[in-house]
Specification:
By secondary structure, this protein is of the alpha/beta class. The protein has two domains: 5-256, Spore Coat Polysaccharide Biosynthesis Protein SpsA, Chain A (Alpha-Beta Complex), CATH 3.90.550.10; 259-408, no CATH class. It is built from 14 helices and eleven strands. The protein has helices at residues 44-58, 74-80, 93-100, 124-131, 153-171, 187-193, 202-212, 234-238, 242-257, 259-280, 295-322, 326-335, 338-365, 375-403; strands spanning 5-6, 17-20, 29-37, 62-68, 84-87, 106-111, 136-146, 183-186, 217-224, 286-288, 291-293. A nine-stranded mixed sheet has the order 1-2-5-4-3-6-8-7-9, sandwiched between helices. Strands 10-11 form a two-stranded antiparallel sheet. The longest helix is centred in the last third of the chain and has 29 residues, at 375-403.
């Protein structure tokens, strides 16, 4: 019989309880194995023994912390095998890791599952990578081995390769298995990553933030086993919709944290095209060979310039909000001051109103009728629009400085 005690971190009011096996010490360690678990009584006992074997092989002082929201005997089995239990409400895998952060005592953290699909007897390669200076380590099933029937064909040959390709293209990374459930991260890097996703999309959030923060990353080939007899994976528990839902949610996370990058590129291209057309046709129609450029091309230019300028501004605000490029944000705030923004807004608007004023003069002079199209006036409309956009963007930048905590800027 093991005696369970509550640690000084106990937060019963928040529904969190930290339980320790008899004789446990709360000393600092090198490695913390942190595992969310829910109703894993079939596998968790053997999993604990795998961890102990892996710890002995790696020769590293380790804490085993199981973040548990089970209704079965999982916590009892963990305590009997010498592990710590953090009892938390069922709020999602990402929330489980967030709840665990105050209780983690290691400078290195190894995450994974307690279902025996990942071999925790072989954690030594992760420890070696940490000792070499890695800040973020992904396990890779594709560079290791996958037991027959361990991964559905839809995941193995379509879903995972496709999302790998998308993430690597967006973030210029080189991961081979972004959905692998075993991964390592230093405590300092975990704080910088600042997980916000409550569900299992936290996994993609970690990978893409590691890429954007340019953490020193590496991959470790791992063995991936199929579920033990009698145990259903969480995907199977959800049903046939699970892999499609997982893909959709992971794609959403990738796009959300990369919104600034593709908005910048698309916006810059549109703005350049728009300005070339608008300024080039400001004096009137132009013919190049057999191709004529007139009013409709200028209106296309106004549209492109407006959309491009908006995209760039939204991208800047996104980068300010997600806080993954602090040096860029610092430079941006030095350049885009309130005074400069307001002066630019006033200058653009005034120039536009002058051009529009010339059109209004001719309109009044000809008895409230116009028989010609004024290209300069259309350029004036564009300048007024850009001036107003600059005004709004300047105000939003000032609001962001006051609302977003400095630690995130």
């Amino acid at each position: 019989m093991h005696v369970r005690t509550r640690s000084n971190h106990n937060n019963a009011a928040g529904g969190i309880e930290h339980l320790l096996p008899h004789g446990a010490m709360l000393d600092d360690v090198e490695l913390s194995i942190v595992i969310p678990a829910m109703n894993e009584e079939i596998t968790v006992g053997e999993f604990m023994e795998w961890c102990k074997e892996g710890i002995e092989r790696a020769g590293v002082a380790t804490q085993i912390l199981i973040v548990d929201s089970s209704t079965d005997s999982t916590p009892k089995i963990v305590l009997e095998h010498g592990g710590e239990i953090l009892r938390v409400p069922k709020r999602g895998v990402g929330s489980a890791y967030m709840d665990a952060i105050p209780y983690i005592r290691g400078k290195w953290i190894l995450m994974g599952d307690a279902d025996l699909t990942y071999d925790f007897r072989e954690i030594a390669p992760f420890v070696e990578e940490f000792r070499k200076g890695a800040e973020f380590i992904m396990g890779s099933r594709f560079r290791g081995s996958i037991e027959k029937d361990a991964m559905p064909k839809l995941h193995r040959y379509f879903g995972t390769p496709l999302t790998n390709w998308i993430l690597n293209r967006i973030y210029r990374s080189n991961f081979s298995d972004i959905h692998c459930g075993i991964r390592g991260v230093t405590r300092e890097a975990l704080d910088r990553i600042n997980i916000t996703s409550r569900g299992w999309e936290y996994a993609s959030e970690m990978v893409l933030k590691a890429a954007r923060l340019k953490l020193t990353s590496s991959e470790v080939p791992i063995k991936f086993y199929k579920d033990r007899e009698g145990r259903l994976s969480h995907h199977l528990r959800v049903g046939w919709r699970s892999p499609w839902l997982a893909g959709w949610v992971n794609l959403k996370v990738m796009l959300v944290y990369a919104a600034d990058s593709f908005l910048f590129k698309a916006g810059a291209a549109l703005l350049i095209i728009g300005l070339i057309l608008s300024l080039g046709l400001a004096a009137g129609p132009v013919r190049i060979g057999r191709i004529g450029f007139s009013l409709h091309w200028m209106l296309l230019g106004v549209t492109c310039a407006t959309l491009g300028y908006s995209s760039i501004q939204i991208g800047l605000l996104v980068r300010l909000m997600h806080g993954l490029k602090p040096r860029f944000v610092e430079r941006l705030q030095k350049i885009m001051t309130y005074d400069r923004g307001m002066i630019a807004s006033a200058a653009l608007s005034l120039a536009g109103l002058v051009l529009l004023g010339n059109l209004a003069y001719h309109y009044l002079k000809h008895g409230l009728q116009l028989d010609v199209i004024s290209h300069p006036a259309i350029l004036g409309l564009l300048l007024v629009i850009l001036g107003f956009q600059t005004f709004g963007f300047t105000l939003l930048m000032e609001v962001a400085k006051r609302v977003i905590p400095r630690s995130q800027q």
